[in-house]
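ARCHIVE CARD
Drawer: 12
Card no.: 0347
Subject: one protein chain, sequence and derived structure
Cross-reference: see card 0346
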Amino acid sequence: MRILAYTSPARGHLYPITPAFVELRRRGHEVHVRTLASEVPALQALGLHADRIASSIEALPLDDWRARTPEEGLARGLHTFGERAVHEVPDLQRAIAEVDPDVLLVDITTAGAAAAAEAASRPWARWIPFFVHYTLDPDVPVEVSHIPFALSPAGMEVLNEPRRRLRLAPIGSEADVWRAPLHLYYTAEPFEVEGLVLPPSFRMVGPGIWEPPFDPPAWLEELDEPVVLVSVSSEYQLDDALVAIALEALRFEDACVVATTVAHDPGKFEVPANARVERWLPHGALLRKAACVVCHGGMGVTQKTLAAGVPVCAVPFGRDQMEVAARVEAVGAGTHLPPAHLDAPRLRAKVHEAIERKPGAQRVAAGFARAGGAAAAADAVEQLHAGR
């Protein structure tokens, strides 16, 4: 089987599905990936056939961090997805012509690629690395995530504009949104709402855990426990205050504080004696020693942390992070601090409270393990190809 996967320019959408790519290759399938230019060498090193998406798509970063209200943030996000969709259609069509795949996999936020995949008239699927909270059961409250397919006029236009150009039937209802034959849903109970009724195309596979190869510095291996990891979004947003306040809040704690700044300059922070600040470090090595992770509530870092049985203190700044942070607290796997309340005393208290919730994090980790991960995702793709 020859597989072609197409991602948005977001590491948080590429990394979760990468273990499935590796598993499919291990089973003898040929896997082609179109993704961010910066990630191509790492994927090629895994034995995958990787190439970049169109540079015109990477030139359209999310700017929802500029918004003053959640509504404006949603509008900005949808505008970016719509602009990208114009370029995704011909970009994926070129890739299909080059690869001639048996199966297509597309990122849920790529509306243009989804339309092109459906128009290609071959088996196709989408993967979802965040909560959707969607149900077709009338007895269950309907909760549709605000990104990227909110059933608002703007959201429907993002979905339907590339469909019109490809002469596909328009999406006009909630059920139509999930018309792909398969959705790989990268979460699992109990982190997702237990008993939630999802469309039959959904397969909950748990989180995908992968990090690019990295030689850890010597000091990381020698780091004393306990560690408190502080991490912010890999997609730029105004969350640098979380790093600064966490360093202040934890400066006198009997713990090693390690902060990864990712999209922010690590040199801008005042670093106390018990802390280290780096642009990026492999979280896996740190999680083995972590008592807690303080983060922005991104789905990727949150689920990676919980999969290791480590509790989370989530301070959400936008996008889907409010939903993720609320769920962390609801399942007893950590704590949630709204950014409007972010200060050193409150954050310190929330970190201590989160550390006491390790049993809840371990319960989520067990649920994730039961979901099957990369093997379950690969099984679903093979079944899609076989017509089952």
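Annotation on reverse: Residues 70-99 form the longest helix (30 residues). The radius of gyration is 20 Å.
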